Automatic annotation (TrEMBL):
Organism superkingdom: Archaea
InterPro entries: Carb_kinase_PfkB-like, KDG_KDGal_kin_Halo, PfkB_dom, Ribokinase-like
GO molecular function: kinase activity
Family membership: Belongs to the carbohydrate kinase PfkB family.
Annotated ranges, domain Carbohydrate kinase PfkB: 1-294
Keywords: Kinase, Transferase
Entries under Pfam families matching the protein: PfkB
Protein name: Sugar kinase
Source organism per UniProt: Natrarchaeobius chitinivorans
Keyword match Transmembrane helix: no
Length: 317
């Protein structure tokens, strides 16, 4: 059985090469990407056997997603569906002032109908950590109930529950997200949240240290990690706040950076590291991910350890 089990949707990402516009593109680069599978892959790269649960259409596109994830070494346990679509998203990459543009095409997807009873709950209850994100309940009312049921099942089996708040404004409004996600908080042990989301969605005020302490105290989490973008992250545990600066990096792609961070943080905690050490490895993994195109952190444990030991200077050749 896997130490880490994740649950959520993985999409196919289609991107025009270079900085071309979607409306004139004649070819696309294709890869699979989803927060929960990205986390599973990052943790697996750092030595934690991981499984991704989902509901996937029995179509060539659905098989394409599952096949790619398996190539990255994680175990997939999916419910194959003859109804619903495979979610996709399109990303147009560009520098300033245009920036990146993301267009979702994920209505009526197979996973939007997923119910907890369709999955092998023993996998969840036998794992050490169960992980999902705030993206999943944003996709349908059915998934709101399913996410709550999965978290409850994990807790009842003694599995630690970890949750990335992961607010996406293109999926729902802040007030709807706040009402839905705070109802899940009693079933969550470890919360990862961006400082901007704590302010925008939850209405919390203060610097990241204050946000972490307020969240941990108010909602009785075991651990709270507040990410702060290019400035690193802070972690609250046992009423103590720990800070970790980001490592300098030359950014090729920001997509999946947060997932790489989360996967590495969970992995190092599962390896027995304390929160400060786990934050150190998580920020190193996130820095490496920013040098890699695509959604997935294709890193090795040796690379991450070298970034940590060198303080973020260029890896030796």
């Amino acid at each position: 059985m896997s130490d880490l089990v994740t649950f959520g949707e993985t999409m196919l990402r289609l991107s025009p090469p270079d900085s071309r516009r979607l409306e004139t593109a004649s070819e696309f680069e294709v890869c699979a990407g989803g927060a929960e599978s990205n986390v599973a892959i990052a943790a697996n790269k750092l030595g934690i056997p991981s499984t991704w649960l989902s509901k996937v259409p029995e179509t060539p596109l659905g098989r394409r997603v599952v096949g790619e994830l398996r190539q990255h070494g994680i175990e997939t346990d999916v419910v194959w569906s003859h109804r619903g679509r495979q979610g996709t998203y399109y990303m147009e990459r560009a520098g300033k002032p245009r920036g990146a543009t993301v267009i979702y095409d994920r209505d009526d997807t197979a996973i939007s109908t997923a119910k907890a009873r369709e999955f092998d709950i023993d996998r969840v209850q036998n794992a050490t950590v169960f992980f999902t994100t705030g993206i999943t309940p944003a996709l349908s009312s059915t998934l709101r109930d399913t996410t709550a049921s999965m978290l409850k099942a994990a807790r009842s089996g003694g599995t630690t529950t970890a949750f990335d708040f992961n607010y996406r404004r293109k999926l729902w409004a802040p007030d709807e997200a706040e009402q839905t996600l705070t109802k899940l908080f009693p079933g969550i042990d470890v919360l990862i949240i961006a400082a901007r989301d704590a302010r925008t969605v939850l209405g919390f005020e203060g610097d990241p240290r204050q946000l972490a302490h307020k969240l941990g105290s108010q909602y009785d989490f075991q651990t709270v990690v507040v990410t702060r973008g290019s400035e690193g992250a802070v972690g609250w545990h046992d009423s103590v706040v720990h800070e970790q600066d980001a490592y300098e990096t030359d950014t090729v792609s920001k997509i999946g950076t947060g997932d790489a961070f989360t996967g590495a943080f969970i992995a190092r905690r599962l390896h027995g590291d304390d929160v400060p050490t786990a934050l150190e490895y998580a920020t190193a993994t996130a820095a490496l991910k920013r040098t890699i195109p695509g959604d997935v952190a294709l890193v090795s444990q040796e690379e991450v350890e070298e970034v940590v030991s060198s303080g973020g200077s260029e890896l030796s050749r």
